[in-house]
Amino acid sequence: MIGYLEGSILKKDDDRILLLVNQIGYEVLLPVNVMQTLAGTSTGESISLYIYFQQTERQPKPVLIGFNLEAEREFFERFISVEAIGPIKAVKALTLPIRDIARAIESGDIAKLRQLKGIGNRTAHKIVATLQGKMEKFALIRKDELPEAPQVEDITEQVLVVLIKQLGHKKSDARRMIADALTRNSAIRSPEDLFNEVYRGEISP
Question: Domains plus CATH for the chain?
Answer without folding.
Answer: 4-67 (2.40.50.140), 75-139 (1.10.150.20), 152-203 (1.10.8)
